[in-house]
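Archive transcription. Copying these from loose printouts into the bound notebook so they stop getting lost. Printout 1 of 2:
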Amino acid sequence: MFDVVVVGSLNLDLVAGMDRLPGPGETVSGNSYHEYPGGKGLNQAVAAARSGASVAIVGAVGDDTAGEFLRQIVVAEGIDDSWLATAPDTATGRALITVDRHAENSIVVIPGANATVRIDTGALPEGRVMLGQLEIPLPEVTAAFEHARRVGMTTVLNPAPALGELDALLDACDVVIPNEHEVDLLGGSTALRSRGVGTVVVTRGGEGVNVIDETGEFRHDAFPVTPVDTTGAGDSFCGALATRLAEGLDVRAAITFAAAAGALTTTSAGAVPSLPSRAAIEQLVASRAA
């Protein structure tokens, strides 16, 4: 029995830094380049593991050096890779990321092996919380969430990238965590609640977090930090929130911990490298309480 089962993507992130992001048809000069482990599934799995959860990941990498590298990261973080497939004759997913001097980013994702993920509901790991995103095929995420709902797991969806036709998946969601752009594409928090979602958590970057549930709406202010790179902040939030839900907290009680994790992630570069430990998250939470 794992605390958190993550169903999702694994990518190699190719990150270029520059003063400003280019417009359509424009070329700008970059000032840095790095390669990092990433993909929303891997990011969220590592975030959950570092924040204290036992984690299994369900996904796929390619049979290339990038795939070997990402599997090594999974194992090194203490995440169970028994359900991580290697897709033959397929490249590992990639994300092309540009980051400007204000820490804003633009991302292009090439699915690669992530598109080959197929869910065998008879062989999924058991857990308390299932956490998923939309960077693997939608029918597979839906199948996994429907199974999780049947066996009594709490289901948490980060609907990124946002898609319109999510009715079947939303029927199986306890918590949905969109950002401010994704929630608009999905028709708004009221529409999501009317489609059966128990709790909607809207992340708004430096503006904080809004929680909408059966009791109304609650806002949590962001932790004040100096951002370096916002890549992975939302994934950090999701992984940390899933950890606290697995520990028995409700969403409102878990928000401060998750918000602190997301804020800390923006203070250094890269997605996986910037994901904070539980000790660091608790220290930031304690600083606000003081």
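Printout 2 of 2:
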Amino acid sequence: MKKVIVTGATGMVGKGVLLECLDHPEISEVLAVGRNHLEIDHPKLKQLIHKDFTNFSDVKNQLTGYDACFYCLGISSVGLKEEQYKKISYEFTLALAKILLENNLQMTFNYVSGQGTDSSESGRVMWARIKGKTENDLLKLGFKQAFMFRPGIIIPLRGIKSRTKSYRFMYDYFMWLVKIVKALSPNSVVSTTQIGQAMINSMLRGFRQNVLKAKDIIELSK
């Protein structure tokens, strides 16, 4: 039986991953790490409310004994300066990853990145550069397994709603277009359920590459 950590469980992707973990027969415990309490009651679920995502040293002992971390915390770059976006997308991620690696040498660490991420770290698009640096530095840390998820278009299932206003608008009024895209190019669109299942399967059986695009996520989810 496996024990996993999920971050960003109040968001669309994170909640999808959380629900799949709670339902999975090979997972005995899910620790949701976040700044706000989740209104979910489940015998497998534990919650760690932590306000400062730049420093986890004071809760280090509560982050020991886990097999995987599914890092789904993220934010849109719209309206943010580079230093603001970097703090949330890079500094928060690496702060937790480093503490987890100290305590869990056999851990799988999965990071939700994005389609268009810039692995060269030198392109013009700010969010893509920072996501690229985050991916690169996570892969260098030395986890037993680390996978970077670049899902692209995501369909929320199981009643999940995006917290981002622009995304909610798109899903409410243009889901028909997303479904057309999926029909024409089935390997370009994934669901929150598929992301969750793929993350679990990556922990259980690994995957042939570290960076997963939509088609890889779909394959791994089966």
